[in-house]
Design goal:
There is one protein chain. By secondary structure, this protein is of the alpha+beta class. It folds into 2 domains: about 80 residues, Glutaredoxin (3-Layer(aba) Sandwich), CATH 3.40.30; about 110 residues, Up-down Bundle (Glutathione S-transferase Yfyf (Class Pi), Chain A, domain 2), CATH 1.20.1050. The protein has a 4-stranded mixed β-sheet with strand order 2-1-3-4, with helices on one face. Helix 1 packs parallel to helix 3. Bound molecules: glutathione.
Length: about 210
Amino acid sequence: MSRDLYTFFRSSTSYRLRIALAHKRLEYAPHYVSLPKMEHRTPSYRALHAQGLVPLLIDGDRSLIQSMAIIEYLDEVYPDPRLLPADVHGRHYVRAVSQIIGCDIHPLNNVRVLKHLQAQFGADEAATKKWYRHWIAEGLGGLETYVASAGLAGRFCYGDTVTMADICLVPQIFNAQRFDCPIDDYRTLVAIFERCMALEAFRATQPNTQADAF
Ligand SMILES: N[C@@H](CCC(=O)N[C@@H](CS)C(=O)NCC(=O)O)C(=O)O
């Protein structure tokens, strides 16, 4: 069965899927979609992805969008190794951590949001960075408190096995580092990030290893 991933090296949502696929040892053919060249907005790409965003996964005859929904799909179709816990409370927690990142941090700092701030509201580079860092500080601050106090973290966000929560966390830390956001105060998150980066699935799929990286 064929599997195709439409990805951009610096896209954190694409990185989520690269990690999930590598962790589950699922092979795929990469298709590189350049966001700076606006390839995601071309009619031919929009014919594949209704929103004109990356990532997009085509798994056999199924066309799949939305990275967290895709990770849950992969977990149901290819359950070994699992990325969501078996118990309901664990699943809630892993989804909550993932959604803090995927719903409350990442969208506010997306390329199209930053571009809109600049084009429609006159934000210059300094103001854009201020905006970016504000939402990182607010988002990662709350996430650190949640993960540190929930009592469920171990070597990773949930116990000692990798879950969707770690797969969302690591690319978001990369984004924070790229925009020089201070992260040292998020001690629990940074320790988990470092443990994840010791794993092949996270390391081999990171942005600068990708064929489209520049
Ligand atoms: N919620 C979506 C977000 C997808 C998304 O926003 N992708 C970004 C890259 S990380 C994108 O394509 N941005 C293009 C743009 O903002 O113009 C998901 O998780 O798949």
